[in-house]
């Protein structure tokens, strides 16, 4: 497939891997955080870790929009559908995120709540037009990538004079989350999370540009390389980070030049600025309350704000005690450090949010990589006449 | 003197008519629909008898029974419709047990208000599929549900067939060292349906691969009677079928991404829709597992058959008590091909 296969070429990947191996200095470790779930997914799906030397570690970041959504906000959405009898429209991944009382949007739907899975924010607007007698709420989630489409439908709803359409806004901001991680005691004081550099977001950066990362590259002296979501993008970004660290540089570099500029998408940014403003504080699952890390709808569009129309009150709900999603989202723990990983908590029955979306660190590891966790024992004796050559190498990581 | 009028009933209006509750009520309207549509289209001696069941000659040997419900949305799609799909789906389930299909039964749940013209098109498509396959639809049933309680039409078909002597095909027979083959490109059906739903058009239309595979299976079994496992990777796709085999046989699988045939337009659509072709449904493909030494011959036979022209050997069965299906990615790494979580595409068949 043109423009896709070029970025998944195994030959080129081995070439980059060789260079990473040559340039990564022995006796030094390179701890790199990929912020985005899209990168986490690519790393797991294409087996990128298999190509990296042992002293280059990838740490999964919190950049999975579904994963960072706190339980209380999902509870709010369920209440909108069950108590306010609204049609709640949302993206597919949000459906399975565990809420309070053993519920999720999916389970609430099975109990009769009118919750609809949509592909695009525009679908929610269409549903509102088709159901003029019903309240229709778009449960909007996501980072800067999904914010402009939400801004567009709010503007369209206003232009159409729709009275039954509102948005429950849960849009969050990437740079503040990265800063929060860098400010955390684990990184700053305890040193339990060694973080040497970041692979910066792909799609988010197409909107906000590379400029917003310049502050913390300089302030915290950590290099950032913005990379696309294809596996070669990730490999190239790792090589660029290794080089920056070897040179003692802490710059923002852009590997994803085919889509990202320094300034980003001015039109999208101005749309967002017209409709949204900063929230003083927002709770992130795993990170807790993070100041100025999310958006809310401006007064000029208050008629389309579900929080105002329905008087939604937020109540913080603690995660399941056994769940390590919080620590995993901060990079403090790995999925396999969690006691319930792969036993009680699986993609079919997620306890924590990292197991829900395919971009979540736990789901990605469970789905693509968990065979590396177990030592595969050879059978006692092979069945008669069967060659053993095909057995899987007994690799343990 | 009284005159009795000739026994005339106005024919069913297949141009503008719609299904109403009387078509399932057991009265004259239902009898008329059965006569003029189902019995007329499927046209065979068993339906002509007008009994509630079919009395057929019991074949000697081992009987295979398979049943499948079809709820696909939309009902008509490039490459087929719910009618031929409901025939192919069940014929294939019978064939994947190594059997030669002999008879089909069909059951319809119709929604009040469904256009009779569409129903006629669907039934005629079933009739054509059954004729092409040489397997008659010998008995059936029709029910009508109120508007809003169905989605146009749901079709359940049941197939009967016999397994030739000496053939032993089952999902639990895969052994380490065996070869894994696929009969052609994967993901066509699911992507055809999804592109239609999402109004996506590509330079070339992606057509469903819906097809009956019992002819291909018969040729394969004749040439390589040692085939151990056969299955058509419908919902859940190739990835799910391999996991089913791995669990049933208590083995692992190792496949090579580069060897799996996927049409470029299917790949492109999957990329666009965020789907993985490994998990996208097929309706005219099969997965076969056979001893390694027979794989070359089996591949030749499959490629010589029109339904298997793009067949490929995609990997082998390995010894693994964890029953992982692993894949060497074209990129050079290795990953698990896990069970599908949740539902990738609803109402696909």
Give a verbal description of the structure.
The complex is a heterodimer of chains A (397) and B (349). In chain A, 34% of the residues lie in helices and 16% in strands. With 397 residues, chain A is an alpha/beta fold. Chain A has three domains: 126 residues, HypD, alpha/beta domain 1 (Rossmann fold); 149 residues, HypD, alpha/beta domain 2 (Rossmann fold, 3-Layer(aba) Sandwich), CATH 3.40.50.11740; 43 residues, no CATH class. Chain A has a five-stranded parallel sheet with strand order 2-1-7-8-9, with helices on both faces. Chain A has a four-stranded parallel sheet with strand order 4-3-5-6, with helices on both faces. Chain A has a two-stranded antiparallel ribbon with strand order 10-13. In chain A, helix 2 packs parallel to helix 15 and helix 6 crosses helix 12. Chain B is of the alpha+beta class and 349 residues long. Chain B has two domains: 143 residues, PurM-like, N-terminal domain (60s Ribosomal Protein L30, Chain: A, 2-Layer Sandwich); 158 residues, PurM-like C-terminal domain (Phosphoribosyl-aminoimidazole Synthetase, Chain A, domain 2). Chain B has a seven-stranded mixed sheet with strand order 8-10-7-11-9-12-13. A four-stranded mixed sheet of chain B has the order 1-6-4-5. In chain B, strand 2 and strand 3 form a beta hairpin. In chain B, helix 1 packs parallel to helix 4 and helix 6 packs antiparallel against helix 9. The longest helix of chain B is centred in the middle third of the chain and has 18 residues. At the A-B interface, helix 1 and helix 15 of A face helix 8, strand 11 and strand 13 of B.
């Amino acid at each position: 497939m043109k423009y896709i296969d070029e970025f998944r070429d195994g030959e080129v990947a081995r070439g980059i891997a060789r260079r990473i191996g040559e340039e990564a200095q022995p006796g030094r470790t390179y701890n790199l955080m990929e912020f985005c779930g899209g990168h986490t997914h690519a790393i797991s799906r294409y087996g990128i870790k298999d190509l990296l030397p042992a002293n280059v570690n990838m740490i999964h970041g919190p950049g999975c929009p579904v994963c960072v959504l706190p339980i209380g906000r999902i509870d709010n959405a369920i209440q909108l559908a069950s108590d306010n009898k609204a049609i709640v429209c949302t993206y597919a991944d949000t459906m399975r995120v565990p809420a309070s009382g053993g519920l999720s949007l999916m389970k609430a739907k099975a109990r009769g709540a009118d919750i609809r899975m949509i592909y695009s924010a525009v679908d929610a607007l269409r549903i509102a037009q088709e159901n003029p007698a019903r309240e229709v709420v778009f449960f909007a989630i996501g980072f800067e990538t999904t914010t402009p489409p939400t801004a567009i439908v709010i503007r369209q709803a206003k232009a159409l004079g729709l009275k039954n359409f509102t948005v429950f806004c849960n849009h969050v901001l990437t740079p503040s989350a990265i800063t929060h991680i860098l400010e955390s005691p684990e990184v700053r004081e305890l040193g339990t999370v060694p973080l040497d550099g970041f692979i910066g977001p792909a799609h988010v950066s197409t909107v906000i540009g590379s400029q917003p990362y310049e502050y913390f590259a300089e302030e915290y002296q950590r290099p950032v390389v913005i990379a696309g979501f294809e596996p070669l993008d990730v490999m190239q970004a790792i090589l660029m980070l290794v080089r920056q660290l070897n040179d003692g540089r802490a710059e923002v570099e852009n590997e994803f030049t085919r889509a990202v500029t320094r300034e980003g998408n001015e039109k999208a940014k101005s749309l967002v600025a017209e409709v949204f403003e900063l929230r003083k504080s927002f709770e992130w699952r795993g990170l807790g309350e993070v100041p100025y890390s999310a958006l809310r709808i401006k007064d000029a569009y208050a008629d389309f704000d579900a929080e105002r129309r329905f008087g939604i009150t937020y109540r913080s709900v603690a995660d399941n005690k056994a769940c390590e999603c919080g620590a995993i989202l901060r990079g403090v723990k790995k999925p396999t450090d969690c006691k319930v990983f792969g036993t009680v908590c699986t993609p079919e029955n997620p306890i924590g949010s990292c197991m829900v979306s395919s971009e979540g660190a736990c789901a990605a590891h469970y789905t693509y990589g968990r065979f590396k966790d177990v030592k595969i024992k050879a059978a006692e004796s092979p069945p008669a006449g069967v060659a053993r050559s095909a057995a899987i190498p007994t690799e343990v990581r | 003197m009284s005159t009795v009028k000739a026994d005339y009933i106005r024919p069913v209006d297949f141009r503008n008519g719609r299904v109403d509750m009387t078509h399932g009520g057991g009265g004259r309207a239902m009898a008329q629909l059965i006569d003029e549509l189902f019995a007329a289209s499927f046209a065979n001696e068993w339906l002509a008898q007008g009994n509630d069941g079919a009395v057929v000659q019991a074949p000697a040997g081992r009987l295979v029974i398979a049943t499948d419900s079809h709820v696909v949305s939309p009902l008509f799609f490039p490459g087929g419709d719910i009618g031929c799909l409901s025939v192919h789906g069940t014929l294939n389930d019978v064939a994947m047990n190594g059997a030669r299909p002999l008879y089909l039964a069909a059951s319809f749940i119709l929604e009040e208000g469904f256009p009779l013209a569409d129903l006629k098109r669907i039934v005629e498509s079933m009739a054509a599929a059954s004729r092409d396959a040489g397997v008659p639809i010998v008995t059936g049933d029709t029910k009508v549900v109120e508007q809003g309680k169905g989605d146009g039409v749901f079709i359940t078909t049941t197939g009967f067939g016999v397994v030739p002597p000496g053939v032993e095909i089952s999902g639990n027979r895969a052994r380490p060292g065996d070869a894994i083959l696929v009969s052609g490109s994967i993901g066509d059906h699911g992507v055809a349906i999804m592109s239609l739903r999402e109004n996506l058009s590509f330079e070339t239309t992606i057509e469903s691969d819906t097809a009956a595979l019992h002819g291909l299976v018969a040729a394969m079994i004749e040439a390589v009677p040692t085939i151990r496992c056969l299955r058509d990777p419908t919902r859940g796709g190739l990835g799910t079928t391999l996991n089913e085999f791995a669990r049933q046989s208590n083995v692992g699988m190792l496949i090579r991404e580069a060897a799996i045939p996927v049409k470029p337009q299917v790949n492109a659509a999957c990329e666009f829709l965020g789907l993985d072709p490994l998990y996208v449904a097929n309706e005219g493909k099969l997965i076969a597992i056979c001893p390694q030494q027979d794989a070359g011959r089996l591949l030749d036979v499959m490629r010589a058959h029109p339904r298997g022209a793009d067949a490929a050997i995609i990997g082998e069965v390995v010894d693994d008590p964890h029953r992982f299906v692993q894949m060497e990615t074209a990129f050079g790494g290795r990953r698990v091909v896990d069970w599908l979580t949740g539902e990738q595409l609803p109402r696909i068949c």
